[in-house]
Backbone:
């Protein structure tokens, strides 16, 4: 298994762990693109999804958006935007935001919408108005699903940010793209392992965050399984 | 911020003369795209079915199978394709194995959930009527699980159509080749053609599958999500 040894040698080479091309810098770049894209996507998608969930207007759009989003090829968007606006963060951000918006819209819609009718009625019976019902009842109850949407998007964004390297940006994708063009297999495989690990860590950390931000009254009782079931039904 | 290409005008997004001159290339790319998607789905279904049956038969396997599938699914597609290169080289197998793994993950999950979602009473009724295990599976459980299974096939199909474009980076790619062409020529028309065709392909495939589901499960009119 010469390849395995070469990859291990590549990953453990101290030169790999310092400098502007080093693994720490590349990882931070990767996280920077991902975080920026997810934040922008959240700022766009959360109000839309919550509004649709609260009012029920545009439900069909919200439910089908995730399916539509899957049909958009991110590599194509990145390259197209690159030929249109040139080198920079914009082409990658456009593609990543387009990727991240649909799951957040769909999940926050489903989350708010699926708040129990009785719970809503009870809140109204207590004299709450539309906005109070939204902020004090619907949103807290919808948190698990909203967070699940953000998590889904963030993991996809981290995975797809790999493609940023194709249009000259940094991030962990550099090792894959450079390694492919230099026919340097250890670098390619080492980079692929790093990206895979980063994606899995993102998934794990956000899963942890999700359990932390879910209101205590909703925690336990297999909330995660229930959330998944709901999301799947919606998608 | 230096050696980027000169921005092009939006009016230049599509140059029809290029499309007219390259109809053969576009058709070949589309055919390869459909072939890769179809084969990946076929292999995925063939592998997912026994795995799902095993998971339903021995519930203890369910957690590990789904957990493993979830981990694999989190791995970025480009990374997965590349991790296969040491074993299969830059051949079509690499693209196909990677794509099949992704379809497998979605299909197994939905098959298991579909089969497990069959009402307990229905199962017991079948047993009480003296159905054998196999007959119960094929005549009762599978038909009832079909909406969920086809929902999985739809997700797998649309996802795979998108993923095929990424295999362009390892020498395949179907319509993804048009992205690479456009990038190399710094010319948006092939890229636009590739994006539009792959999105259209995804919608068409999805619609066909919805139609298929409605024919196969006429009793479940509201299902289909």
Residues:
């Amino acid at each position: 298994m010469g390849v395995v040894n070469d990859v291990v040698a590549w990953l453990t080479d101290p030169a790999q762990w310092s400098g502007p091309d080093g693994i720490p810098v590349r990882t931070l770049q990767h996280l920077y693109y991902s975080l920026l894209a997810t934040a922008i996507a959240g700022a766009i998608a959360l109000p839309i999804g919550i509004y649709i969930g609260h009012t029920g207007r545009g439900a069909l759009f919200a439910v089908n958006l995730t399916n539509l989003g899957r049909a958009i090829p991110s590599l194509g968007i990145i390259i197209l935007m690159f030929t249109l606006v040139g080198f920079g963060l914009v082409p990658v951000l456009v593609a990543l935001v387009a990727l991240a918006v649909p799951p957040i819209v769909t999940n926050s819609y489903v989350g708010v919408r699926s708040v129990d009718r009785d719970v809503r009625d009870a809140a109204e019976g207590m004299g709450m108005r539309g906005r109070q019902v939204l902020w004090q009842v619907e949103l807290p109850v919808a948190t698990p699903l909203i967070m699940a949407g953000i998590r889904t998007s963030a993991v996809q964004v981290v995975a797809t940010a790999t493609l940023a390297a194709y249009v000259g940006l940094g991030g962990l994708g550099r090792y894959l793209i450079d390694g492919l063009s230099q026919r340097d297999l250890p670098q390619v495989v080492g980079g692929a392992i790093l990206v895979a690990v980063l994606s899995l860590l993102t998934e794990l950390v956000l899963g942890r965050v999700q359990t932390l931000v879910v209101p205590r009254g909703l925690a336990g009782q297999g909330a995660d399984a229930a959330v998944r079931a709901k999301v799947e039904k919606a998608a | 911020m230096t050696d980027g290409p000169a921005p092009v005008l939006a009016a230049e997004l599509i140059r029809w003369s290029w499309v007219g001159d390259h109809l053969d290339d576009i058709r070949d790319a589309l055919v390869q795209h459909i072939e890769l998607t179809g084969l990946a789905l076929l292999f995925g279904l063939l592998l997912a079915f026994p795995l799902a049956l095993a998971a339903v038969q021995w519930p203890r396997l369910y957690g590990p199978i789904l957990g493993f599938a979830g981990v694999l699914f989190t791995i970025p597609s480009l990374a997965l394709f590349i991790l296969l290169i040491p074993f299969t080289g830059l051949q079509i197998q690499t693209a196909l194995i990677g794509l099949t793994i992704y379809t497998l993950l979605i299909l197994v999950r939905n098959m298991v959930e579909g089969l497990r979602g069959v009402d307990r009473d229905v199962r017991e009724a079948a047993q009480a009527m003296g159905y054998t295990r196999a007959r119960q599976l094929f005549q009762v459980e599978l038909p009832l699980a079909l909406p969920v299974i086809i929902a999985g096939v739809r997700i797998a199909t649309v996802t795979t159509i998108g993923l095929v474009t990424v295999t362009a980076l390892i020498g395949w790619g179907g319509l993804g080749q048009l992205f690479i062409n456009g990038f190399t020529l710094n010319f948006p028309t092939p890229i636009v053609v590739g994006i539009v065709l792959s999105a259209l392909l995804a919608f068409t495939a999805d619609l066909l599958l919805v139609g298929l589901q409605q024919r196969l499960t006429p009793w479940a009119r509201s299902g289909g999500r």
